[in-house]
């Protein structure tokens, strides 16, 4: 069973940022388990009458999915996203981004002309806290750096907007904006090494 592109919102709500895996073994079996659980979350959320449901997604499952199954769904220029689920809502993340590709796409000669000066594939790290309640989520940014150098928030917002563009939201999402949790998710409990999706 594959994770269809329409379910990417569920995955986005769980991981939000990109993060670094520390120690957990990845496997195709764990990737398949994650994919199955995402389908189950989506299908349960689509039921008109449903009982309360809690689904646990582990850090290992999520990072295995990123490694073995996510590539067709990732936007161009983004590779190797990994997540550490610290607990108490906190997420740590890393990914490799192709700043040259973004520069070609975003350069306007105006406020964001700086993208034309950037280039290469660089590791980006993000830390923050996911808040969720009443079917809404919000990511509170704590820090971001590129190759160990602090990264300005306005440029990060450009990256987030670039990578979250969809047909329904062609300008993408702002980092601090609240967002609707998909699949009738009530909230997400971020514990150590796992996220519990509550519907």
Present the secondary structure layout:
Elements: H1 8-15, H2 28-46, E1 54-58, H3 59-68, E2 78-87, E3 90-98, H4 99-106, E4 121-133, E5 136-146, E6 149-150, H5 153-163, E7 179-180, E8 187-191, E9 194-198
Antiparallel strand pairs: 1-9, 2-3, 3-4, 4-5, 5-6, 5-7, 8-9
Look at the helices and sheets and give the structural class: alpha+beta
**Percentage of residues in helical conformation:** 25-40%
Radius of gyration from the alpha-carbon trace, in angstroms: 17 Å
SS field, number of helical segments: 5
Mean pLDDT value: 82
β-strand percent reads 25-35%
Main sheet?
6 strands, antiparallel
Enumerate the spans where pLDDT stays under 50 for 5 or more consecutive residues: 1-10, 16-23
State the end-to-end distance. 22 Å
* Count of domain modules: 1
User: Which word captures the global form?
Assistant: globular
Describe, in plain words, how this protein is organized in 3D.
- The radius of gyration is 17 Å and the shape is globular.
- 31% of the residues are buried.
- β4 (121-133) and β5 form a beta hairpin.
- The chain has 199 residues and is an alpha+beta fold.
- It has helices at 8-15, 28-46, 59-68, 99-106, 153-163; strands spanning 54-58, 78-87, 90-98, 121-133, 136-146, 149-150, 179-180, 187-191, 194-198.
- It is 28% helix and 31% strand.
- The chain has one domain (5-198).
- The two termini are 22 Å apart.
- Strands 2, 3, 4, 5, 6 and 7 form a 6-stranded antiparallel sheet that branches. The protein has a 3-stranded antiparallel sheet with strand order 1-9-8.
- α2 crosses α3.
- Mean pLDDT is 82; it is low at 1-10 and 16-23.
- The longest helix has 19 residues, at 28-46.
């Amino acid at each position: 069973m594959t994770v269809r592109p329409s379910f990417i919102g569920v995955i986005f709500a769980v991981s939000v940022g990109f993060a670094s895996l520390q120690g957990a073994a990845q496997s195709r079996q764990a990737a398949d388990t994650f994919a199955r659980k995402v389908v189950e979350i989506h299908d349960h959320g689509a039921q008109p009458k449903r009982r309360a449901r809690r689904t646990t997604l582990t850090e290992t499952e999520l990072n295995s999915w990123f490694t073995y199954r996510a590539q067709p769904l990732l936007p161009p220029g983004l590779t190797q996203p990994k997540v550490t689920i610290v607990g108490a809502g906190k997420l740590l993340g890393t990914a490799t981004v192709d700043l040259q590709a973004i520069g070609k796409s975003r350069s306007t000669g105006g406020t964001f002309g700086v993208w034309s000066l950037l280039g290469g594939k660089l590791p980006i790290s993000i830390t923050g806290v996911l808040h969720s309640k009443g079917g809404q989520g919000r990511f509170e940014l704590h820090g971001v750096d590129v190759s160990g150098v602090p990264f300005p928030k306005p440029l990060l917002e450009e990256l987030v907007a670039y990578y979250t563009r969809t047909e329904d939201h062609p300008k993408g999402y702002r980092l601090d904006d609240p967002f609707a949790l998909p699949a009738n998710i009530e909230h997400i409990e971020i514990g150590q090494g796992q996220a519990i999706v509550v519907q």
